[in-house]
What we know:
The complex is a heterodimer of chains A (363) and B (84). Chain A is an alpha+beta fold and 363 residues long. Chain A has helices spanning 10-19, 44-53, 68-72, 74-91, 107-116, 129-139, 310-328, and strands at residues 2-7, 24-31, 34-39, 58-63, 93-94, 96-100, 123-124, 143-151, 154-161, 173-174, 179-188, 190-191, 198-199, 204-207, 209-211, 217-219, 223-239, 241-259, 262-266, 276-286, 291-307, 334-345, 348-360.
Amino acid sequence: MKFDLKGYNIDNLLKTLYSKKVTLYNLCRPEHNHIIFEVADSDEKKVKKYINNYKSTTTLSLKRKFPKILLMNLGLIIAIFFGSIFFIFASAYTWQIRVYGTEELSEGEVLSVLYNNGVKVGKINLCSSEDIEKILLKNYDRIAQVSVIKEGTAIIINISEKLVYNAGEYEPIVAKYNGIITDINLVTGTLNVKVGDYVNVGEILVLPFNLDNTNTKIPVKPMAEIYADILVISSLSLEREETKLKRTGRKTICYDYKIFNHHLFYGKNKNSFALFEIEVYNESISDLLLLSRDVLCFYELDYTIVNHNFESERDELVKASEARAYVDLPKNVEILSQTTETTIIEDTMYATTTIKVHGVINA
Amino acid sequence: MSMLDEIEKLMQSVGTSYNYRIVNLGGKSVYIEGIKSVIFLSIDEMQFQLKESSLSIIGKQLSIKYLDKNSAVITGGIITVGVK
Lengths: 363, 84
Protein backbone atom coordinates (compact mmCIF):
# COMPACT_ATOMS: atom_id res chain seq x y z
CA MET A 1 0.00 0.00 0.00
CA LYS A 2 1.52 3.31 -1.06
CA PHE A 3 0.79 6.61 0.69
CA ASP A 4 1.52 10.01 -0.74
CA LEU A 5 0.92 12.66 1.91
CA LYS A 6 1.16 16.41 2.07
CA GLY A 7 0.82 18.39 5.23
CA TYR A 8 2.62 20.12 8.07
CA ASN A 9 2.81 17.47 10.79
CA ILE A 10 4.76 14.86 8.89
CA ASP A 11 7.43 14.49 11.58
CA ASN A 12 4.78 13.84 14.20
CA LEU A 13 3.09 11.32 11.92
CA LEU A 14 6.37 9.50 11.30
CA LYS A 15 7.16 9.39 14.98
CA THR A 16 3.69 8.07 15.73
CA LEU A 17 3.92 5.39 13.07
CA TYR A 18 7.34 4.44 14.29
CA SER A 19 6.15 4.25 17.88
CA LYS A 20 3.23 2.03 16.75
CA LYS A 21 5.77 -0.33 15.18
CA VAL A 22 4.64 0.26 11.60
CA THR A 23 7.31 -0.90 9.16
CA LEU A 24 7.87 1.62 6.39
CA TYR A 25 9.24 0.93 2.93
CA ASN A 26 10.59 3.18 0.18
CA LEU A 27 10.19 6.29 2.29
CA CYS A 28 11.03 9.52 0.51
CA ARG A 29 10.52 13.10 1.65
CA PRO A 30 11.07 15.31 -1.40
CA GLU A 31 9.83 18.40 0.49
CA HIS A 32 9.37 19.24 4.14
CA ASN A 33 5.57 18.96 3.81
CA HIS A 34 5.52 16.02 1.42
CA ILE A 35 6.23 12.39 2.12
CA ILE A 36 5.81 9.20 0.15
CA PHE A 37 6.05 5.79 1.72
CA GLU A 38 4.74 2.26 1.47
CA VAL A 39 3.56 -0.10 4.16
CA ALA A 40 2.67 -3.79 4.28
CA ASP A 41 -1.00 -4.64 3.77
CA SER A 42 -1.16 -5.76 7.38
CA ASP A 43 -0.27 -2.21 8.54
CA GLU A 44 -2.67 -0.45 6.17
CA LYS A 45 -5.51 0.02 8.65
CA LYS A 46 -3.11 1.23 11.30
CA VAL A 47 -1.68 3.90 9.01
CA LYS A 48 -5.10 5.04 7.83
CA LYS A 49 -6.17 5.41 11.44
CA TYR A 50 -3.35 7.86 12.18
CA ILE A 51 -3.72 9.62 8.87
CA ASN A 52 -7.30 10.30 9.85
CA ASN A 53 -6.06 11.83 13.10
CA TYR A 54 -3.99 14.28 11.06
CA LYS A 55 -6.72 14.88 8.63
CA SER A 56 -6.91 18.63 9.19
CA THR A 57 -3.38 19.14 8.00
CA THR A 58 -2.72 16.10 5.87
CA THR A 59 -3.97 15.22 2.40
CA LEU A 60 -4.02 11.62 1.32
CA SER A 61 -3.91 9.84 -1.99
CA LEU A 62 -3.95 6.10 -2.04
CA LYS A 63 -2.55 4.16 -4.93
CA ARG A 64 -2.80 0.44 -5.04
CA LYS A 65 -1.20 -1.19 -8.00
CA PHE A 66 -3.58 -4.13 -7.98
CA PRO A 67 -6.54 -4.73 -5.64
CA LYS A 68 -5.60 -7.16 -2.91
CA ILE A 69 -8.81 -9.16 -3.19
CA LEU A 70 -8.16 -9.70 -6.88
CA LEU A 71 -4.65 -10.92 -6.20
CA MET A 72 -5.92 -13.31 -3.53
CA ASN A 73 -8.56 -14.74 -5.89
CA LEU A 74 -6.66 -14.60 -9.16
CA GLY A 75 -7.46 -18.21 -9.98
CA LEU A 76 -11.12 -17.65 -9.33
CA ILE A 77 -11.12 -14.53 -11.50
CA ILE A 78 -9.42 -16.36 -14.35
CA ALA A 79 -11.99 -19.14 -14.04
CA ILE A 80 -14.86 -16.61 -14.07
CA PHE A 81 -13.32 -14.87 -17.07
CA PHE A 82 -13.00 -18.00 -19.15
CA GLY A 83 -16.34 -19.24 -17.88
CA SER A 84 -17.99 -16.02 -19.03
CA ILE A 85 -16.39 -16.32 -22.45
CA PHE A 86 -17.58 -19.91 -22.74
CA PHE A 87 -21.06 -18.93 -21.55
CA ILE A 88 -21.35 -16.11 -24.12
CA PHE A 89 -20.03 -18.41 -26.83
CA ALA A 90 -22.31 -21.29 -25.88
CA SER A 91 -25.38 -19.11 -25.47
CA ALA A 92 -25.13 -18.05 -29.13
CA TYR A 93 -25.87 -21.66 -30.07
CA THR A 94 -29.28 -23.26 -30.31
CA TRP A 95 -29.34 -26.39 -28.17
CA GLN A 96 -33.03 -27.17 -28.20
CA ILE A 97 -36.07 -26.57 -30.44
CA ARG A 98 -39.45 -27.32 -28.88
CA VAL A 99 -42.61 -27.39 -31.01
CA TYR A 100 -46.07 -27.16 -29.45
CA GLY A 101 -49.62 -27.11 -30.81
CA THR A 102 -49.19 -29.27 -33.91
CA GLU A 103 -52.08 -31.53 -34.94
CA GLU A 104 -51.95 -32.37 -38.62
CA LEU A 105 -48.37 -31.19 -38.95
CA SER A 106 -45.67 -33.30 -37.36
CA GLU A 107 -42.84 -31.89 -35.29
CA GLY A 108 -40.42 -33.48 -37.77
CA GLU A 109 -41.92 -31.53 -40.67
CA VAL A 110 -41.52 -28.28 -38.78
CA LEU A 111 -37.95 -29.10 -37.77
CA SER A 112 -37.00 -30.14 -41.31
CA VAL A 113 -38.18 -26.79 -42.70
CA LEU A 114 -36.20 -24.97 -40.04
CA TYR A 115 -33.19 -27.20 -40.75
CA ASN A 116 -33.33 -26.30 -44.44
CA ASN A 117 -33.38 -22.62 -43.52
CA GLY A 118 -30.33 -22.83 -41.28
CA VAL A 119 -32.06 -23.10 -37.91
CA LYS A 120 -30.47 -26.21 -36.43
CA VAL A 121 -29.72 -27.66 -33.03
CA GLY A 122 -26.03 -27.31 -32.20
CA LYS A 123 -25.46 -24.37 -34.54
CA ILE A 124 -25.30 -20.62 -34.07
CA ASN A 125 -28.75 -19.36 -34.95
CA LEU A 126 -28.69 -16.11 -36.92
CA CYS A 127 -32.47 -15.97 -37.55
CA SER A 128 -34.61 -13.78 -35.33
CA SER A 129 -37.91 -15.00 -33.90
CA GLU A 130 -39.77 -13.02 -36.55
CA ASP A 131 -37.69 -14.62 -39.31
CA ILE A 132 -38.53 -18.10 -38.02
CA GLU A 133 -42.23 -17.21 -37.91
CA LYS A 134 -42.07 -15.99 -41.51
CA ILE A 135 -40.29 -19.18 -42.61
CA LEU A 136 -42.99 -21.39 -41.07
CA LEU A 137 -45.90 -19.33 -42.38
CA LYS A 138 -44.35 -19.28 -45.86
CA ASN A 139 -43.81 -23.03 -45.97
CA TYR A 140 -47.05 -24.24 -44.42
CA ASP A 141 -50.45 -22.93 -45.52
CA ARG A 142 -51.98 -25.04 -42.78
CA ILE A 143 -50.50 -22.83 -40.09
CA ALA A 144 -52.95 -20.15 -39.01
CA GLN A 145 -50.76 -18.53 -36.35
CA VAL A 146 -47.27 -19.14 -35.06
CA SER A 147 -45.28 -17.57 -32.29
CA VAL A 148 -41.58 -18.10 -31.71
CA ILE A 149 -39.87 -17.34 -28.42
CA LYS A 150 -36.19 -17.68 -27.65
CA GLU A 151 -35.49 -18.75 -24.08
CA GLY A 152 -31.76 -18.89 -23.55
CA THR A 153 -30.47 -21.53 -25.93
CA ALA A 154 -33.92 -22.98 -26.64
CA ILE A 155 -36.35 -21.99 -29.38
CA ILE A 156 -39.97 -22.51 -28.42
CA ILE A 157 -42.45 -22.65 -31.28
CA ASN A 158 -46.20 -22.47 -30.66
CA ILE A 159 -48.28 -23.37 -33.69
CA SER A 160 -52.00 -22.94 -34.24
CA GLU A 161 -53.16 -24.86 -37.28
CA LYS A 162 -56.07 -23.99 -39.53
CA LEU A 163 -59.15 -26.18 -39.25
CA VAL A 164 -58.72 -28.70 -42.06
CA TYR A 165 -61.51 -30.25 -44.06
CA ASN A 166 -61.01 -33.97 -44.67
CA ALA A 167 -62.42 -34.99 -48.02
CA GLY A 168 -64.51 -38.11 -48.18
CA GLU A 169 -67.05 -37.32 -45.49
CA TYR A 170 -69.42 -34.40 -46.12
CA GLU A 171 -68.76 -31.57 -48.52
CA PRO A 172 -68.05 -28.17 -46.98
CA ILE A 173 -70.12 -25.13 -47.85
CA VAL A 174 -68.18 -22.92 -50.22
CA ALA A 175 -68.70 -19.41 -51.52
CA LYS A 176 -70.26 -19.26 -54.95
CA TYR A 177 -69.60 -15.56 -55.38
CA ASN A 178 -67.12 -12.96 -54.27
CA GLY A 179 -68.37 -10.75 -51.48
CA ILE A 180 -68.22 -9.36 -47.97
CA ILE A 181 -70.04 -11.42 -45.35
CA THR A 182 -72.73 -9.48 -43.49
CA ASP A 183 -74.74 -12.10 -41.60
CA ILE A 184 -74.36 -15.78 -40.68
CA ASN A 185 -77.11 -18.25 -39.79
CA LEU A 186 -75.29 -21.43 -38.87
CA VAL A 187 -77.25 -24.63 -38.26
CA THR A 188 -74.55 -27.30 -38.26
CA GLY A 189 -70.84 -27.41 -39.04
CA THR A 190 -67.94 -25.24 -38.05
CA LEU A 191 -67.58 -21.73 -39.38
CA ASN A 192 -64.42 -20.94 -41.29
CA VAL A 193 -65.24 -17.27 -41.79
CA LYS A 194 -66.71 -14.41 -39.80
CA VAL A 195 -68.80 -11.34 -40.48
CA GLY A 196 -66.74 -8.72 -42.30
CA ASP A 197 -64.52 -11.21 -44.12
CA TYR A 198 -64.05 -10.84 -47.86
CA VAL A 199 -64.38 -14.22 -49.52
CA ASN A 200 -63.63 -15.37 -53.03
CA VAL A 201 -65.44 -17.94 -55.12
CA GLY A 202 -64.63 -21.46 -53.88
CA GLU A 203 -63.47 -20.42 -50.45
CA ILE A 204 -64.69 -22.69 -47.64
CA LEU A 205 -67.34 -21.01 -45.51
CA VAL A 206 -68.50 -23.84 -43.25
CA LEU A 207 -66.52 -26.98 -42.50
CA PRO A 208 -68.38 -30.32 -42.38
CA PHE A 209 -67.77 -31.16 -38.74
CA ASN A 210 -68.56 -30.03 -35.23
CA LEU A 211 -65.99 -29.79 -32.45
CA ASP A 212 -66.79 -31.29 -29.05
CA ASN A 213 -65.32 -30.25 -25.71
CA THR A 214 -62.10 -32.15 -26.36
CA ASN A 215 -61.71 -30.54 -29.81
CA THR A 216 -62.53 -33.85 -31.52
CA LYS A 217 -64.05 -33.41 -34.98
CA ILE A 218 -67.48 -35.00 -35.37
CA PRO A 219 -68.49 -35.17 -39.05
CA VAL A 220 -71.83 -33.52 -39.87
CA LYS A 221 -73.51 -32.27 -42.98
CA PRO A 222 -72.92 -28.51 -42.86
CA MET A 223 -76.02 -26.33 -43.04
CA ALA A 224 -75.94 -22.56 -42.98
CA GLU A 225 -77.19 -19.44 -44.69
CA ILE A 226 -74.44 -16.94 -45.09
CA TYR A 227 -75.48 -13.52 -46.29
CA ALA A 228 -73.09 -11.20 -48.00
CA ASP A 229 -72.85 -8.08 -50.09
CA ILE A 230 -72.02 -9.80 -53.34
CA LEU A 231 -70.18 -8.08 -56.13
CA VAL A 232 -70.87 -9.39 -59.62
CA ILE A 233 -68.45 -7.94 -62.12
CA SER A 234 -68.63 -8.37 -65.88
CA SER A 235 -66.29 -6.87 -68.41
CA LEU A 236 -66.43 -6.82 -72.21
CA SER A 237 -64.04 -5.23 -74.66
CA LEU A 238 -64.25 -3.99 -78.23
CA GLU A 239 -61.23 -3.33 -80.44
CA ARG A 240 -61.28 -0.47 -82.94
CA GLU A 241 -60.17 -2.82 -85.72
CA GLU A 242 -61.77 -6.26 -85.60
CA THR A 243 -60.69 -9.08 -87.85
CA LYS A 244 -63.59 -11.31 -88.84
CA LEU A 245 -63.03 -14.72 -90.41
CA LYS A 246 -65.45 -16.58 -92.66
CA ARG A 247 -65.31 -19.72 -94.77
CA THR A 248 -64.96 -19.29 -98.52
CA GLY A 249 -66.71 -22.61 -99.31
CA ARG A 250 -63.60 -24.42 -100.53
CA LYS A 251 -62.43 -27.46 -98.62
CA THR A 252 -59.85 -30.25 -98.82
CA ILE A 253 -60.26 -33.65 -97.21
CA CYS A 254 -57.16 -35.55 -96.11
CA TYR A 255 -56.87 -38.99 -94.58
CA ASP A 256 -54.56 -40.47 -91.98
CA TYR A 257 -54.77 -44.26 -92.06
CA LYS A 258 -54.23 -46.22 -88.86
CA ILE A 259 -54.03 -49.78 -87.65
CA PHE A 260 -54.37 -50.69 -83.99
CA ASN A 261 -54.57 -46.94 -83.53
CA HIS A 262 -51.03 -46.50 -84.88
CA HIS A 263 -50.25 -44.33 -87.88
CA LEU A 264 -49.81 -46.22 -91.19
CA PHE A 265 -49.72 -43.61 -93.97
CA TYR A 266 -51.35 -40.41 -95.23
CA GLY A 267 -53.67 -40.16 -98.22
CA LYS A 268 -52.85 -38.34 -101.44
CA ASN A 269 -54.60 -35.06 -100.68
CA LYS A 270 -52.74 -32.39 -98.83
CA ASN A 271 -53.87 -29.10 -97.38
CA SER A 272 -52.94 -26.15 -99.57
CA PHE A 273 -54.88 -23.38 -97.81
CA ALA A 274 -52.89 -20.63 -96.14
CA LEU A 275 -55.74 -19.70 -93.80
CA PHE A 276 -58.04 -22.51 -92.74
CA GLU A 277 -59.90 -24.19 -89.94
CA ILE A 278 -59.96 -27.93 -89.49
CA GLU A 279 -62.52 -30.52 -88.39
CA VAL A 280 -61.32 -34.02 -87.50
CA TYR A 281 -63.25 -37.20 -86.96
CA ASN A 282 -62.38 -40.89 -87.03
CA GLU A 283 -64.10 -43.50 -89.18
CA SER A 284 -63.60 -47.27 -89.14
CA ILE A 285 -62.54 -49.10 -92.33
CA SER A 286 -62.37 -52.66 -90.97
CA ASP A 287 -63.44 -53.60 -87.49
CA LEU A 288 -61.85 -57.01 -87.91
CA LEU A 289 -58.41 -55.65 -88.73
CA LEU A 290 -58.88 -52.64 -86.45
CA LEU A 291 -58.18 -50.51 -89.49
CA SER A 292 -59.39 -46.93 -89.33
CA ARG A 293 -58.65 -43.47 -90.65
CA ASP A 294 -58.78 -39.96 -89.34
CA VAL A 295 -60.66 -37.63 -91.69
CA LEU A 296 -59.24 -34.13 -91.70
CA CYS A 297 -61.50 -31.52 -93.31
CA PHE A 298 -59.64 -28.30 -94.08
CA TYR A 299 -61.95 -25.31 -94.72
CA GLU A 300 -60.44 -22.30 -96.40
CA LEU A 301 -60.97 -19.04 -94.56
CA ASP A 302 -60.99 -15.46 -95.64
CA TYR A 303 -60.79 -12.45 -93.35
CA THR A 304 -62.24 -9.00 -93.39
CA ILE A 305 -61.28 -6.08 -91.18
CA VAL A 306 -64.21 -4.25 -89.57
CA ASN A 307 -63.63 -0.76 -88.18
CA HIS A 308 -65.76 0.02 -85.11
CA ASN A 309 -66.92 3.45 -84.08
CA PHE A 310 -66.59 3.64 -80.30
CA GLU A 311 -69.11 6.49 -79.91
CA SER A 312 -71.89 4.80 -81.80
CA GLU A 313 -71.26 1.34 -80.39
CA ARG A 314 -70.68 2.35 -76.77
CA ASP A 315 -74.30 1.79 -75.69
CA GLU A 316 -74.39 -1.57 -77.36
CA LEU A 317 -71.26 -2.66 -75.49
CA VAL A 318 -72.67 -1.38 -72.19
CA LYS A 319 -75.88 -3.31 -72.70
CA ALA A 320 -73.95 -6.46 -73.55
CA SER A 321 -71.82 -6.07 -70.43
CA GLU A 322 -74.89 -5.57 -68.22
CA ALA A 323 -76.62 -8.55 -69.78
CA ARG A 324 -73.57 -10.67 -69.10
CA ALA A 325 -73.49 -9.49 -65.47
CA TYR A 326 -77.15 -10.38 -64.99
CA VAL A 327 -76.49 -13.89 -66.26
CA ASP A 328 -73.98 -14.35 -63.45
CA LEU A 329 -76.25 -12.82 -60.83
CA PRO A 330 -77.51 -15.10 -58.01
CA LYS A 331 -81.28 -15.60 -57.78
CA ASN A 332 -83.56 -14.07 -55.16
CA VAL A 333 -81.25 -11.24 -54.22
CA GLU A 334 -81.78 -7.60 -53.49
CA ILE A 335 -79.91 -5.34 -55.88
CA LEU A 336 -78.17 -2.62 -53.94
CA SER A 337 -76.41 -0.78 -56.74
CA GLN A 338 -75.39 -1.13 -60.36
CA THR A 339 -72.77 0.77 -62.31
CA THR A 340 -71.22 0.39 -65.74
CA GLU A 341 -68.08 2.20 -66.68
CA THR A 342 -66.48 2.44 -70.09
CA THR A 343 -62.84 3.16 -70.65
CA ILE A 344 -60.73 3.38 -73.77
CA ILE A 345 -57.17 2.17 -73.53
CA GLU A 346 -55.21 2.54 -76.77
CA ASP A 347 -57.43 0.98 -79.47
CA THR A 348 -59.69 -0.99 -77.16
CA MET A 349 -62.87 0.07 -75.36
CA TYR A 350 -63.78 -1.73 -72.15
CA ALA A 351 -67.21 -1.81 -70.51
CA THR A 352 -67.20 -3.02 -66.89
CA THR A 353 -70.47 -3.60 -65.08
CA THR A 354 -70.47 -3.95 -61.31
CA ILE A 355 -73.67 -5.05 -59.60
CA LYS A 356 -73.79 -5.07 -55.84
CA VAL A 357 -76.46 -7.30 -54.37
CA HIS A 358 -77.33 -8.63 -50.95
CA GLY A 359 -78.12 -12.29 -50.69
CA VAL A 360 -77.01 -15.75 -49.73
CA ILE A 361 -73.46 -16.25 -50.90
CA ASN A 362 -73.57 -20.05 -50.65
CA ALA A 363 -76.85 -20.56 -52.54
CA MET B 1 25.33 -16.65 9.14
CA SER B 2 25.36 -12.85 9.16
CA MET B 3 28.71 -11.14 8.82
CA LEU B 4 27.65 -8.66 11.53
CA ASP B 5 26.71 -11.47 13.91
CA GLU B 6 30.11 -13.03 13.33
CA ILE B 7 31.83 -9.75 14.09
CA GLU B 8 29.68 -9.21 17.25
CA LYS B 9 30.44 -12.69 18.51
CA LEU B 10 34.11 -12.00 17.97
CA MET B 11 33.91 -8.71 19.88
CA GLN B 12 31.76 -10.16 22.71
CA SER B 13 34.58 -12.61 23.35
CA VAL B 14 36.66 -9.67 24.47
CA GLY B 15 33.85 -8.37 26.74
CA THR B 16 32.32 -5.65 24.57
CA SER B 17 28.55 -5.01 23.94
CA TYR B 18 27.00 -2.67 21.32
CA ASN B 19 23.85 -0.52 21.33
CA TYR B 20 23.72 0.05 17.60
CA ARG B 21 25.19 -1.13 14.30
CA ILE B 22 25.82 1.02 11.23
CA VAL B 23 27.00 -0.34 7.89
CA ASN B 24 27.81 2.09 5.09
CA LEU B 25 27.63 0.26 1.74
CA GLY B 26 29.89 2.23 -0.57
CA GLY B 27 28.20 5.57 0.08
CA LYS B 28 25.05 4.41 -1.73
CA SER B 29 23.14 3.04 1.24
CA VAL B 30 23.39 2.77 5.00
CA TYR B 31 22.08 -0.02 7.20
CA ILE B 32 21.28 0.95 10.78
CA GLU B 33 20.29 -1.20 13.76
CA GLY B 34 19.37 0.00 17.25
CA ILE B 35 17.05 2.86 16.31
CA LYS B 36 14.75 4.00 19.09
CA SER B 37 12.88 6.78 17.29
CA VAL B 38 12.89 9.08 14.29
CA ILE B 39 13.98 12.62 15.07
CA PHE B 40 14.00 14.25 11.67
CA LEU B 41 13.71 13.20 8.03
CA SER B 42 14.39 15.23 4.94
CA ILE B 43 15.84 14.71 1.49
CA ASP B 44 19.25 16.05 2.60
CA GLU B 45 19.47 14.91 6.22
CA MET B 46 18.03 12.22 8.46
CA GLN B 47 18.32 11.94 12.24
CA PHE B 48 17.51 8.94 14.37
CA GLN B 49 17.49 8.52 18.13
CA LEU B 50 19.65 5.63 19.28
CA LYS B 51 19.72 4.20 22.82
CA GLU B 52 22.28 6.60 24.24
CA SER B 53 23.05 8.85 21.30
CA SER B 54 21.67 10.21 18.06
CA LEU B 55 22.58 9.32 14.48
CA SER B 56 22.78 11.90 11.73
CA ILE B 57 23.07 11.04 8.01
CA ILE B 58 23.82 13.81 5.56
CA GLY B 59 23.62 13.23 1.82
CA LYS B 60 21.75 13.92 -1.41
CA GLN B 61 18.37 12.51 -2.51
CA LEU B 62 18.10 10.45 0.65
CA SER B 63 15.25 8.03 1.06
CA ILE B 64 14.41 5.21 3.42
CA LYS B 65 14.19 1.87 1.72
CA TYR B 66 13.09 0.14 4.87
CA LEU B 67 12.21 1.31 8.40
CA ASP B 68 10.94 -0.77 11.30
CA LYS B 69 10.97 -0.50 15.08
CA ASN B 70 14.67 -1.27 15.30
CA SER B 71 16.35 -0.94 11.96
CA ALA B 72 16.43 1.07 8.76
CA VAL B 73 17.99 1.09 5.31
CA ILE B 74 18.71 4.53 3.91
CA THR B 75 19.63 4.97 0.26
CA GLY B 76 20.92 7.94 -1.68
CA GLY B 77 24.15 9.77 -2.02
CA ILE B 78 25.59 9.29 1.50
CA ILE B 79 28.08 12.03 2.38
CA THR B 80 28.53 11.61 6.15
CA VAL B 81 27.23 9.32 8.85
CA GLY B 82 27.80 10.69 12.34
CA VAL B 83 26.91 9.69 15.87
CA LYS B 84 26.67 12.29 18.64
